[in-house]
From TrEMBL, chain A:
Probably deamidates glutamine residues to glutamate on methyl-accepting chemotaxis receptors (MCPs), playing an important role in chemotaxis. It comes from Halonotius terrestris. Keywords: Chemotaxis, Hydrolase. GO terms for molecular function: protein-glutamine glutaminase activity. InterPro entries: CheD-like_sf (IPR038592), Chemorcpt_Glu_NH3ase_CheD (IPR005659), Cytotoxic_necrot_fac-like_cat (IPR011324). This is Probable chemoreceptor glutamine deamidase CheD.
TrEMBL record, chain B:
This is Chemotaxis protein CheC. InterPro entries: CheC, CheC-like_sf, CheZ_family_phosphatases. GO terms for biological process: chemotaxis. PANTHER family: PROTEIN PHOSPHATASE CHEZ. It comes from Halonotius terrestris. GO terms for molecular function: hydrolase activity. Keywords: Chemotaxis, Hydrolase. Pfam families: CheC. Residues 105-138, 304-336 form the CheC-like protein domain.
Length: 167, 397
């Protein structure tokens, strides 16, 4: 919903809500929580020092009447890239991290779970845009919280059982 | 009078944006980074107001609105937090040659409220295409719902009052407060009336549903009592209208144990029953003869919570089905033990395919005094809910 940007003088970390994205420059960390069947996708240009994180809910905009593009993998990722380019990122230098897409619930009315379809959509969009995937932590049946640190170029993932993993 | 749910969404969006601007003003004035949690709107009765504000003592700034949007706006924070905010403002203030510190603190809080509410209201006038005038700010201190203007409490007694609430939380400091907006009932209902009949809910049914939610929660609380032998009571029960993406934030990111059900029928939707870990263990242990010796949350607790969840959910939706004169079924329980926001993620994902906003019926049940708590979140499909409510025979008011 919101497009936010912060500069080198800004806070040390920025929170990203569901269906939102944030673009930062410099060492500002990007944080999002509540990544269940949703995906947190990080894009980072280490050369120009521009990072972005989007928290998407669903695979494709076609599935909804919604106008908030940041809710979907297929419309959200291009929008994030555009905002990052405006902040000085170069498209061909972008690398990606994909986190989430778990299957927390199963209902009889489901075909493939939202989590699975989100992961597939992210793979598809990133390969179409020729963006290298630097790391993933996807699937399973647990929720995640994640933090991207531009300085170390890593994503740290926390799960409910207090395990922490860095990719 | 009918309410168009898309219009309600539009106003909710204006309030969220307003709250963001109010947060920005605070950052500029006091150098505190604030995060806007969620903005919700609900039509509340006097009882709900009393429950929502009970046992709390507030400091606030109150400001009247006139013109294109009439009503009252209140910036309120709990009294214990007032000192913290005053300190921050004093630090930021350059001119300190006032008579006494408390006068200065009061006037700086009032000025802060004035600026924040101004930011909050900014976008509304342009949306409505008319001017909104603000009356001078007033510093208030009160216990419970008395922090709200008298007119609003009177209106809540008569026909309910629309209550917009935005929660603001400090990113790095322990500071949080709420911005309330209570538009004048008749004018606001006019503003909410749209033209597309499929998205409309008769406004008097909104309060009917509130009572329904209460019954559902009452049933569910009764079931916990019966199964566990523990004392239970419904603490708060409210029908809120929130952006879907705000639902996980409302639940919070603590660890929860619970069950998620899919509802089918009219309306379809989801029902989520959550216990904090300690409450889950207490409840599960009380359900077993001789108690449970289980360490942590294992299969015994899982079985107990599933069984209890099943019975609670049946009780909850039976109340709805009776009043709506429809039939509603629920799926088998999906057990969850995870972070609250993550549990809600697939639920909002599912609903997000059809809608941007959600009616959330949010009930808190106290178990064994204030020892334990259970939260029930019901999220019906909004169009189906509108349809079911509209189809009810006319009531005499």
């Amino acid at each position: 919903m919101t497009t936010n940007r912060s500069s080198d003088q800004g806070p040390t970390r920025r929170k990203v809500g569901i269906a939102e994205y944030v673009v930062v420059t410099g060492g500002t960390k990007l944080v999002t929580s509540g990544v269940g069947s949703c995906l947190g996708i990080v894009l980072h240009d280490g050369y120009n020092n521009v990072s972005g994180l989007i928290h998407v809910m669903l695979p494709t905009a076609e599935e909804s009447r919604d106008t908030n593009q940041a809710k979907f993998v297929d419309s959200g990722v291009p929008m994030l890239i555009e905002a990052m380019e405006e902040a000085g990122a170069s498209r061909r230098r972008l690398r990606a991290w994909v986190v989430g897409g778990s299957e927390m619930l199963s209902f009889s009315s489901d075909g493939d779970s939202i989590g699975k379809r989100n992961i597939a959509a992210a793979k598809h969009v990133l390969s179409e845009l020729r963006i290298d995937v630097a790391g993933t932590d996807v699937g399973g049946n647990h929720g995640r919280s994640m933090t991207f640190d531009p300085v170390t170029e890593t994503v740290t993932i926390q799960t409910a059982d207090d395990t922490t993993q860095t990719i | 009078m009918k309410v168009d749910i898309r219009e309600l969404g539009q106003f909710n969006h204006l309030a969220s944006q307003g709250a963001e601007r109010a947060a920005e003003s605070l950052s500029q004035l006091a150098g505190v980074e604030m995060d806007v949690d969620v903005t919700d709107v609900s039509l509340v009765t006097e009882t709900v107001l009393a429950e929502t504000f009970a046992d709390r003592s507030f400091v606030g700034v109150e400001l009247g609105l006139e013109g294109g949007l009439e009503g009252e706006t209140v910036l309120a924070f709990e009294r214990e937090r007032a000192l913290k905010l005053q300190d921050l403002l004093m630090d930021a203030a350059i001119d300190t040659d006032s008579d006494s510190e408390s006068t200065l603190a009061k006037s700086s809080v009032t000025e802060l409220g004035n600026i924040m509410i101004g930011g909050f209201i900014d976008g509304w006038a342009s949306h409505l295409g008319t001017a909104i005038n603000m009356t001078p700010p007033r510093y208030t201190e009160a216990n419970g719902p008395r922090i709200l203007p008298d007119q609003a409490i009177e209106a809540a007694k008569k026909h309910g009052v629309f209550l917009f609430e935005s929660k603001l939380r400090g990113m790095d400091v322990d500071l949080d407060f709420s911005l309330y907006m209570l538009p004048e009932y008749r004018q606001f209902v006019q503003l909410l009336s749209g033209n597309e009949s499929s998205n409309q809910i008769p406004v008097n049914r909104l309060s009917t549903f509130e009572e329904l939610a209460k019954e559902g929660a009452g049933n569910a609380a009764g079931q916990i009592g019966m199964m566990t032998g523990l004392d239970t009571s419904v603490d708060v029960s409210r029908l809120r209208f929130v952006p879907l993406s705000g639902v996980p934030k409302q639940v919070g990111n603590d660890q929860f144990v619970g069950v998620v059900f899919e509802l089918t029928g009219l309306p379809s939707g989801y029902l989520v029953v959550l216990f904090d870990e300690a409450s889950a263990k207490t409840v599960a242990s009380s359900m077993m003869p001789g108690g449970s010796e289980e360490d942590g949350i294992g299969t015994m607790t899982e079985g107990a919570i599933k069984e209890l969840g099943n019975i609670m959910t049946s009780g909850f939706i039976d109340g709805w089905a009776n009043v709506l004169q429809t039939s509603i079924e629920h799926s088998p329980p999906n057990f969850v033990h995870d972070m609250g926001e993550s549990i809600m993620s697939p639920v909002v994902g599912k609903l997000g395919q059809q809608q941007d906003y959600a009616f959330v019926i949010d009930s808190a049940i106290e178990i064994d005094g204030q020892e334990g708590q259970c939260d029930i979140y019901a999220l019906p499909d909004e169009r189906e809910l509108a349809r079911a409510l509209s189809a009810l025979p006319a009531q005499t008011e």
